[in-house]
Amino acid sequence: MLIKPMTRAADPAAEEPPGTGAGATGARGGADPHRLTATQGLAALSLDAMASVAYGPEAIVLVLAAAGSYGLGFTLPVTLAIAALLAVLVASYRQVIAAFPNGGGSYAVARAHLGPRTGLVAAASLILDYVLNVAVAVAVTAGVAALTSAFPGLYDDRLPICLGVLVLVTAVNLRGIVESAKAFLVPTVVFVGSILAIVVAGLLRDGPVSTQAADGHASVLTGNATSVGALLLLKAFASGCSALTGVEAVANAVPSFRAPAAKRAQRTEVALGALLGVMLIGLSVLIGRFHLQPVDGVTVLAQLADASLGHNWAFYVVQFATVVLLALAANTSFGGLPVLMSLLARDNYLPHVFGLKADRQVHRHGVLALATVSGALLVFSGGDTNTLVPLFAIGVFVGFTICQTGMVLHWRRERSERWRAKAALNGFGALLTGVSAVVVTATKFTDGAWLVAIALPLLVLAFEAVHRAYGRISERLGLGRVPEPPHRDRSLVIVPVSHLSRLTGDALNAAVSLGDEVRAVTVTHPDEEDRRATEALRRDWQLWNPGVGLVELHSPHRTVGRPVAAYVDRVHRYHPNTRVTVLIPEVEPAHIWQRLLQNQRGSVLAHAVRRDTDAVICRLRFRL
User: How many CA atoms lie within 13 A of 318 on its CB side?
Assistant: First the structure.
């Protein structure tokens, strides 16, 4: 097992070679083809946020529908409040990009200024964010909802479609996407262009062109109230805040931009905020202008496309563009979560297997873990977007709040030019996002948000448990300490055998080269058939005379592992300074299916010896 020293520096920039950092310039700087331009960054890192226009306004409308048509009139004021919070977040994350040009986002800020445990809280919130970004249909389910709005006959099959899309995105990410930004640019342009076309066309019309998409579907309005309470408005605000997910993605990947990386990332962040704000506000204006009502089986975005563009080819372009972008938004999580898990594994907070990369530079274990958990959540929710969206925003806003709080401490310690104004901005952002986190948790608690409130501390406790386990292993192995000078002990190699074959000869040849003394052992049992087999082996061994003694281990039960382990233990007791190696010869079949033909004796032996002794185990494979 490979264990990393606990004293290793945690800063990812510490391992970055000179000239490759976020601020690198020169021949490899601005023209580096493997880094992002601002436009490519918008396509590669903002898909999650862009896709939120497909479900954010709908989440608001569904809550306000409880107050009937009068309640729907508050869609625009609620959206304006969310847009104001978006503006504060964008301004704050521009500060994060400038202060942490090596990336890392909330986890890096919290670890540097708020301590390891708070950093783990930020990491846990990011993990929940990434997982729910896929399962929430934010990237998959909502995309399928757009598809079923265009083809209502598929509505009852939305869960299998969701899982199919998830499998497809997972398969693509397991292969790796090196030039993903270029591939994502066209779908992003088509989607943004479609939404802006809906907004512009809708503003130029006095009424809806078509209502065919909603015809025949039941309205979900539940009343016709004459007033709207503050609690309902807060609940609508909390639901709409799901549209702010993904705003932090650019700050997490600043080193991916071409030099000057921080400047390009800041421009991307501003462009993201401007486009997202315009689309959210524009769609909300149209909801009021067309007096749109939410209906079962058809998304709000589909109704808006129908009302603004008509039920024609443009309507279907919008639906397919939405499906494609939402599916690609899932890719944001598949690109971000495995990297975050690798950082946690490097810091000994997750198993080190999550730090391994495949040949295509993909953290496959992280990708598979994300797909598995997201698939389970999709099955649990039945593929229902509105079941999952309330859970989504909590982790996001916890990460927002921690990040902004850490930035306040950053500016106080740095005391650079205009540090008070910068600290005030981040402090204001922390206040708004903190209040939003409380509002989202409180208003959505009974709708399933309690699961996130439980999962977040459980994840932190799990991280700390893994860290303590690695600490104990590190202490036991003496990592970081100078070992004693090597010395030679007497060595004994034990080779279990059951019959003579070419494999037996190869095993003894290998054993002679490994140890000072070699002993072959065979386990005998009291039944007549085994007694005759033992006598035949003893006779053949004497005829062969390999120069290695054959020790017979008698066992009253038909077991192999325990007698060999007991013999090794006796050797250890009588010869404490002898290093014992158990060499287990095994056959490696030519085909995988032929493993079913083996008796697994080698695995049983290895398990028993490993469990009951400190002997070294060597499994010698003979390839057919």
Answer: 28
d(CA 589, CA 587): 6
Please check whether residue 145 is in contact with residue 299, taking contact to mean a CB–CB distance below 8 angstroms. Answer: yes
Distance CA 22, CA 16 (A): 10
Q: What does the DSSP 8-state code read for residue 312?
A: S
Q: How far apart are CA 616 and CA 53, in angstroms?
A: 59
Task: Please report, for residues 156, 280, 339, 491, 591, the alpha-carbon distance to residue 140 in angstroms, rounded to integers and kept in the order given.
Answer: 16, 20, 21, 59, 38
Amino acid identity, position 613: T
Distance, in Å, from the CA atom of 562 to the CA atom of 576, rounded to the nearest integer, reads: 20
Please state whether beta strands 517-524 and 490-496 pair in parallel, antiparallel, or not at all (unpaired). Answer: parallel
Measured CA to CA, the distance from residue 56 to residue 245 in angstroms comes to 10
Sign of CA dihedral 226, 230, 235, 238: positive
Over residues 480-518, the pLDDT tens digits come to 777 778 777 788 999 998 888 888 888 898 888 888 889
Contacts of 39 (CB under 8 A, 6+ apart): 185
Beta bridge partners of 552: 522
Closest CA to 50 of 294, 338, 322, 298: 322
Alpha carbon distance 337, 395 (integer Å)? 14
Give the length of the chain: 624
Secondary structure of residue 445 in the 3-state scheme = helix
CA distance 175 to 362: 8
CA-to-CA distance for 580 and 617, rounded, in angstroms? 9
Query: Which pair of tokens denotes residue 25?
Result: 């310039």
Nearest C-alpha neighbor of 177 from the set 38, 367, 365:
367
- The tokens describing 610, both together, are 């490993």
The answer to whether 521 touches 496, Cβ cutoff 8 Å, is yes
H or E, element range at 43: helix 38-45
Continuous segment of H or E residues that includes residue 463 = helix 450-477
Q: What is the DSSP letter of 469?
A: H
Residue 192: name the closest of 182, 183, 200 by CA: 200
For the chain (624 residues), the mean pLDDT of every run of 10, in chain order, is 40 39 41 70 78 81 78 84 88 83 78 89 85 62 58 67 78 65 78 89 81 62 64 78 78 77 87 91 87 78 84 84 77 75 86 77 79 80 58 76 89 83 85 81 74 86 93 83 77 88 87 89 83 87 89 82 88 86 86 75 86 88 80
Distance set, CA 400 to CA 134, 251, 302, 426, 544 (Å): 19, 12, 31, 10, 75
Q: Evaluate whether 440 touches 399 at the Cβ level (below 8 Å).
A: no
Backbone dihedral angles phi then psi of residue 312, each to the nearest 5 degrees? -135, -160
